[in-house]
Design a protein that fits this description.
Blueprint (H helix, E strand, L loop, with lengths): L6 E2 L2 E2 H14 L12 H8 L3 H13 L3 E4 L3 E4 L10 H10 L5 H28 L2 H17 L4 H17 L3 H4 L2 H18 L7 H12 L3 H23 L1
Antiparallel strand pairs: 1-2, 3-4
C-alpha cells in the first residue's frame, strides 16, 4: 500500500486520488447522487492508505463535489453545488472534457459570459486606477505572449499574468479575489482550444488594444477593447466546438 508521502506526477497521493475522482465526477462517469464505497473498501481498491483516501475525500467535499453524512455515506452532490470556478475543478473539467459534448460547449460559453460581465468593468477600473508597476506587469505579459506564443506553456502563463495584472490594477479587493478563477478560466479555455486547433488565430492585437487603452487611462476604450477581445476569443472557441 502506498505511503502518504509518495507522489504521482508531482502530486501527493491524496491529491492524485482527488484529481482522479474529481475527473470521474466532472466527466459524468460518476453521477450526482451516486454513493461511493466505504473508506476501507475504496482505499484497498486504490492501493492507498485510509489516511490518503480520507484526505482526497476532504478535498472534494471542500470543492462541493461530494457530501459525507453519518450513516448515509459519501455521495456526489448535484452539479449546482459544485465550485466550478475553483482552479482545480476547472483544470479537472477541461482535462476530462469531451469536446463534442453539449455540456462542454455550454460551459465554455458560460465562462465567456461570466468573463464578459467581469473583465470589461475590470479593464475600465484598471484604466482609472492603474499604477506604473501594474502597467509594467501588463507589458511583461504582452512580451511573454509575443515571444513564446499561446501554443506554449510560457505563452499561456504570460496571457494569464496579463489578465491577472488587469484585475489587480482595479484596486478593488472584492474584484481582485476573482483573479485566480479568471486566470484559470483564461488558461484552461486556451489550452482546450489548442488541443482541438493547433494553429489558432493570433490574439495579440486585441490584447495590445486593451493594454494601450489602460495605459492611456481611457476607461471607455479599455472596456470596449476588452469586450472585443472576448468576442473574438468566443468566436474562436465556437469555431473549434462547431
Amino acid at each position: 500500500m502506498a505511503g502518504d508521502s509518495e507522489t504521482v506526477h508531482g502530486l501527493r497521493i491524496h491529491q492524485s486520488i482527488a484529481r482522479r475522482l474529481g475527473m470521474s465526477i466532472l466527466s459524468g462517469k460518476v453521477q450526482p447522487g451516486d454513493t461511493l464505497g466505504g473508506e476501507i473498501e475504496e482505499s484497498n481498491a486504490l492501493g492507498i492508505s485510509r489516511t490518503a483516501y480520507r484526505e482526497a475525500i476532504r478535498i472534494l467535499i471542500a470543492k462541493g463535489l461530494l457530501e459525507s453524512r453519518p450513516k448515509a455515506g459519501t455521495h456526489v452532490t448535484p452539479r449546482r453545488r459544485w465550485n466550478l470556478l475553483d482552479p482545480d475543478v476547472l483544470a479537472w473539467m477541461f482535462a476530462a472534457a469531451d469536446p463534442v459534448a453539449e455540456v462542454t460547449a455550454t460551459f465554455v460559453r458560460d465562462l465567456f459570459e461570466l468573463r464578459g460581465v467581469i473583465e470589461p468593468a475590470a479593464a475600465a477600473l484598471a484604466a482609472r486606477r492603474r499604477n506604473d508597476e501594474q502597467i509594467a506587469a501588463m507589458r511583461a505579459g504582452l512580451e511573454g505572449m509575443r515571444s513564446h506564443g499561446l501554443a506554449s506553456a510560457e505563452g499561456q502563463a504570460a496571457d494569464k499574468d496579463f489578465h491577472a495584472a488587469i484585475m489587480e490594477a482595479g484596486r478593488n479587493e472584492a474584484l481582485a479575489s476573482l483573479t485566480v478563477s479568471i486566470g484559470a478560466a483564461v488558461r484552461w479555455t486556451t489550452d482546450f482550444k489548442l488541443r482541438l486547433r493547433p494553429d489558432p488565430r493570433d490574439p495579440l492585437p486585441e490584447h495590445e488594444a486593451v493594454f494601450h487603452a489602460i495605459e492611456q487611462r481611457d476607461e471607455a476604450g479599455a472596456s470596449a477593447a476588452m469586450q472585443e477581445l472576448l468576442r473574438l476569443s468566443l468566436q474562436d472557441m465556437d469555431l473549434v466546438l462547431d
